[in-house]
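[audit] Reproducing an earlier prediction to check determinism. Same input, same settings, fresh worker. If the tokens differ from the archived copy the diff job will pick it up downstream; this log only records the rerun itself.
[audit] input (515 residues):
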Amino acid sequence: MGSQKKPCVVGIDIGTSSCKTLAVDEEGRVLSRVTREYPVYTPFPGWSEQNPLDWWEATKITLSELLFDLEAKGYSIEGIGLTGQMHGLVLFDDLGNVLRPCIMWNDQRSAPYCEKIHELVGGKKEFLCLTNNPMLPGYTGGKILWVREQEPEIFSKAKKFLCPKDYIRLELTGDYVTDVTDASGTGLFSVRERKWAKDLIKSLGIPFELFPEVCESPEITGVVQKEVATEIGVKPGIPVVGGGGDAVVQTVGVGAINPDIISITLGTAGIVAVSLDGFCENPGSTLQFFCNAIPEKWIVYGTTLAAGGSLNWFKNTLGGLEKEVARWVNRSPYDLLDEEAELSSPLGRGILFLPYLIGERCPHSDPNARGVLIGFGLHHSRNDIVRSVFEGIVFSLRDVYAAMETLGITASQVRLTGGGAKSKLFQRLHADIFDSEVLTVSYGEEGGSYGAALLAGVGIGLWSSMQEATSKLEVQERTVPNGESARLYAEFFRVYQSLYSVLQETFQKMSSFQK
């Protein structure tokens, strides 16, 4: 009976708010998906933590429910891929027990230790030579030093650390392993050599025994243990592949695997990413250069902090009418905002919006930057302002890509994914502002879990490569730029770019009044 079942692969995504588990067949179709939420804890301002045991419980539940559905459809799980939030720190004692809650990617407590790390190696420029990335507050390296200095009794018991998705691997297979993409996001990894930066680690006084093994993303790292398989209900011995960090895996999951494709993820934050065929030096400190989930490839990306977050802020703060009407007509308030923006004309008749609502990361690494609405007058309507918010979000993403262009990166297509990708207005604005064809593809909304499943398929030989796996993606919508609008947006984009430098000092002064 078992031999008659059709093969499928599973992707598990340990996200910031939930675990999403899905199954994909050999034609690349999603067969089933299950999601389970868990809490985030903020014991102090700027702190962000989760209990890894919550991830594991959610994983077990989603896998069990998924398995029930797959068996009814006649499918057998043949491989598992892992992805999830990057940069988190999970510490273990010598028995494999979790020593403290995970310090998450958006936790800010380690910022002073990042500067300390730079100083210990002679400055940021010298640090870049070692890892190709600066040590950012979100990265794992600063968190390790924070625990060492602030919680020495815990650090003295620590024998290994892992990133979030790799804790699930440990529970499934018993192996302490991470992959090259998540290792890149620790800030302690030689991206050029695709291995731990041992000299850097030694200079920081961190025991090298703390570090897990590193593998390539499609590589099989172990198999599901018998006891775990019995508890969940899956068969023992299922191969588990390396997987990767969500920002990277989501990019390859939409088929953005060549340098001529820009992947843009429109979530709360905005991620602009381009796959690279070879290693590229990082000349600054705002773009991130990581190993790709595809062996022998790299990836460059930049993150804006308030893409969809800006629209969400407008909806919650100034969109009371839309929220009320949406409730009565059973529609999304975002759809109503889309329609209002469509009633305006490009650039809201001369309004620009800077979406720096919680500071910015790329291309301006500035925690003091704030949102700006400029150019509006008595002749403007609410529709003009709403449209300027949409446009400002896309301008901020175009600004990230402008930093990539200085490195000689050119692309002819944008692949849009994330919640905002459903918006027809966002699709058209990306086409005009990037002056590029914009595609949405099948399963782009699934996030990293779909890419993780594809990596599992490549790892077990279901597909020969990620190229073959992603060739099965179907184009859902295609948008081409309007020449006249593209020229107008290009002119105003230069105005948009000029505003940050004009306002930078003002942002700094105003930060002293913010509470």
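[audit] rerun output stored. Observation attached for the diff report: The chain has two domains: 2-242, 308-402+485-511.
[audit] end
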